[in-house]
Amino acid sequence: MMVLADAAAGETSAIVSLFWITVAIVAAPIIARILRGYVPDVVVLLILGMIVGPFALGWAWPSDVDIISQLGLGMLFLLAGYELDPDLVRGKSGRVARLTWLVSLAFALLVITLAAGSEDFTARIAVAIAVTSTALGTLLPILRQLGLLGKPLGRAVMAHGAVGEVGPILAMSLLLTSRSIEAAAFVLVLFGIAAVLIWAVPRRMLDRIPGIEQTIGRMAGGTTQMPVRIVVLLLVALMAVAAEFDLDVVLGAFAAGLILRELLGPEHPQVGRSLDVIGYGLFIPVFFVTSGMAIDVDAVLSRPWMWVLFVVAIVVSRGVPVWVSERFVPHGLNLPSEPERIQLALYASTGLPIIVAVTQFATDAGLMGQGLASTLVAAGATTVLVFPMLARWVGSRADRKTANAGPTQ
Fold first, then answer.
1. Which of 29, 124, 214, 288 makes a 20 to 30 Å CA pair with 385?
2. CA-CA distance, 390 to 347, in Å (whole number)?
3. Does residue 262 lie within any of the structural domains?
């Protein structure tokens, strides 16, 4: 009886936490709309999570919805991988984007080493990875809303954003581990082989079994929703494989997105719409709310200078190298105008999901205290709030100048 009572109390706690989280999920877009879009929905979700979480009102606890939050993180990276055009990271422009990120990481590590001095190398590399990431999954809705995805600026953001997600994920797998770099690289190769096998099986079935694609298509509606179920299976399978290899699950989620794009291509938009519904309707907002719940507000406010310092470190370590490479390193697709290059640098400096993943790993491994982790996450949230808004302002100002100069020419 005591066991049953304890189980019932745990279920009640989880349901209460989920209730307040769903209240935050519903309230966030309303608040963002009232604020006329100047404060992104993501930031509102984080703030509401801080309010209802254990460090403020204590109405909800992230541990109660941990698996939903993990799926939200996975959906965020799956959608980022699915939206990514592989051609953007190939060729000379892709090589420049990769080199730019490596320069960003080395520069950030140098600055952090000079500032931190005797801190453990793994802790320093964790902070360097965090401040050089790009929140491509978070930026996608913003770019789509502004109509930038098909334009040169949007394509440049996608290229640098993809490298700014994949680079930190691989760096986490190689450097934030108890294994040697050689052993970690070997594990990554094994994971890559497993991902290729997981891609090859459905690819072979689609190619060899007549009518299977049409059969799945006929099961796409109603209560079956077979394509969505298969995508969720793909996502969970790759996340599980990454976990079994002791890698971060975001690597598996991003790989699932790339595989999904390779299997489906752009000719199945209904699948993308269904994923948007289940991802942005529940799982992804839960992830952002629980990320806000993990922020220790008192720790952040006790050292506001460190909060500001991290925001500056992000834009200097990530934004400045992106601007320099776009301005001075020709790759054939360089943005021609200065406002566009500034916008690119600001978008590339917008980071949050990788910061959350890095800080979660670092705190669990004892590399980072909760106060420092909270400050880093708060800085990432600040970049999501401030940098896209600044980029929009720079773009609007440039458009106004062009419009005013037009009649005089």
1. 124
2. 9
3. yes
Give which of 330, 321, 359 is closest to 168, Cα–Cα. 359
- The helix/strand/coil state of 317 is helix
The DSSP-derived string for 156-207 is: HHHHHHHHHHHHHHHHHHHHSSSS-HHHHHHHHHHHHHHHHHHHHHHHHHHH
With a CB cutoff of 8 Å and minimum separation 6, the contacts of 204 are: none
Could you give the 3-state DSSP secondary structure of residue 248?
coil
Between vectors from CA 82 to CA 376 and to CA 364, what angle results, nearest 5°? Answer: 30
Residues comprising the chain, all counted:
409
What domain range includes position 167? Answer: 66-288+297-399
Supply the pLDDT for residue 318.
93
User: Using an 8 Å Cβ cutoff, are 282 and 313 in contact?
Assistant: no
Contact indicator for 291, 72 with CB cutoff of 8 Å: no
CATH number, domain with residue 388: 1.20.1530.20
Angle, vertex CA 371, rays to CA 370 and CA 374, nearest 5 = 80
Domain count, the chain: 1
The answer as to whether 33 is a domain residue is no
In one-letter notation, the amino acid at residue 148 is: L
DSSP string across 60-102: --GGGGHHHHHHHHHHHHHHHHHH--GGGGSHHHHHHHHHHHH
Cα–Cα distance for residue pair 320/336, rounded to 1 Å: 17
Residue 354 phi, psi dihedral angles, 5° rounding: -65, -35
pLDDT tens for residues 220-270?
777 778 888 888 899 999 999 998 888 888 889 989 988 888 887 655 667
- Give the chain's mean pLDDT: 84
Residue 101's nearest CA partner among 168, 176, 146 is 168
Q: What are phi and psi of 62, to 5 degrees?
A: -60, -30
Written as six digits, the tokens of 216 are 């799945």
Judged on CB neighbours under 10 Å (0-12, 13-18, 19+), 197 is: exposed
For residue 120, give the DSSP letter.
Answer: -
- To the nearest 10°, report the CA torsion of 41, 64, 173, 130: 40
**Residue 166 forms part of a structural domain:** yes
* Other CB atoms within 10 Å distance of the CB of residue 401: 11
Tally the C-alpha atoms within 13 A of residue 162's C-alpha that lie toward its C-beta. Answer: 27
On whether the CB atoms of residues 257 and 82 are closer than 8 A, the answer is yes
Higher pLDDT, 215 or 34: 34
The total of other beta-carbon atoms located within 10 Å of residue 148's CB is 21
